[in-house]
Amino acid sequence: MTQAAATVIRRQIVVEAPIERAFTVFTERFGDFKPPEHNLLGVAIAETVFEPKVGGHLYDRGVDGSECRWARILSYEPPDRVVFSWDISPQWTIETEPDNTSEVEVRFVAETPQRTRVELEHRNIDRHGPGWQAVSDGVADDAGWPLYLARYAALFKAGG
Amino acid sequence: MVTYQASDGWDALGDRTRRAIVECLAERPQAVGELADALPVSRPAVSQHLKVLKDAGLVIERAAGTRRIYRLNPTGVAALRDQLDMFWSRALAAYKDAVEQPTQERS
User: Can you give the pLDDT at residue B80?
Assistant: First the structure.
């Protein structure tokens, strides 16, 4: 297992749409396609807002009006590129220390006027590392991480 | 819950030098000497810090000849990566569906 490979996720997908539409759907309708269990609020999400500017946030607004700002917009260059931070800790809470956050870059490349390649890179995942420690401390060293990570994985599988 | 143990763990990473060591090891596995060269602390100090990090389960070591190479414990990193990988697979598949829907503006 190589450490470098574990710290970056690269994905790409080709969509049958002009680059402008590919970019617009990604940013304006993020809440429509992100997996529904991605929710740190205590209530259902009414809408997900992608503020279209550097310094803005990606945030969820709950049906009760509560908000969860889980990403900062670091670059916003329509229709070519967007970069945002991933401010969610392994404990599934908002990470307030920027040094402990990873980041996501999404690039849009026109293959033809009607087809766009979307390249996604989620990098610096190891920056979340210090957070694991707090969770594993309460348990024996060997048991701590696997136990905790199994629970973390269950959050993704729980659905709804 | 076990607050005393938890605070011990926070101490392990509350130290600036230990955070720097963890960051160095995130780049690549390294020996004590390499870490000492990269950081403004002595080799014995690096060894002490590494012992604390190792006891906390954050780094692991292996022997390479006469040297001991330290690296981050990859278990946690790899598991987190797998979960995020799954997240993005699902998100992008749903995104493709959304972007390729017939546009309503034309109707």
Answer: 65
**Which residue stretches of chain A are H helix?**
3-6, 19-28, 30-33, 130-137, 141-157
Residue A133 to residue B9, Cβ atoms within 8 A:
yes
Phi-psi region of B61 (alpha: psi -120 to 50; beta: other; left: phi over 0): beta
Which tens digit of pLDDT belongs to each residue from B33-88? 999 999 999 999 999 999 988 876 678 888 888 889 998 776 656 666 777 788 89
Residue A74: strand, helix, or coil? strand
Whether the bond between A36 and the residue before it is cis, its omega within 30 degrees of 0, is no
* Structure confidence at residue B90 as a pLDDT band (50, 70, 90): confident
Tokens of B75: 């278990």
Tell me the C-alpha distance between B69 and A123, whole Å: 25
Residues 47-76 of A with CB under 8 A from B: none
CB count within 10 Å of CB B102 equals: 7
Q: Do A17 and B100 touch (CB under 8 A)?
A: yes
- pLDDT score, position A38: 76
Give the number of C-alpha atoms closer than 13 A to the C-alpha of residue B83, restricted to the C-beta side: 23
Q: What percent of chain A has pLDDT over 90?
A: 48
Tokens of A159: 């659905």
CB atoms within 10 A of CB B3: 9
Q: Quote the pTM value.
A: 0.61
ipTM > 0.90?
Answer: no
Does A17 contact chain B (CB < 8 Å)?
yes
Q: Enumerate the residues of chain A whose CB falls inside 8 A of the CB of residue B97.
A: 33
Among B20, B44, B40, B22, which Cα is nearest to B32's?
B44
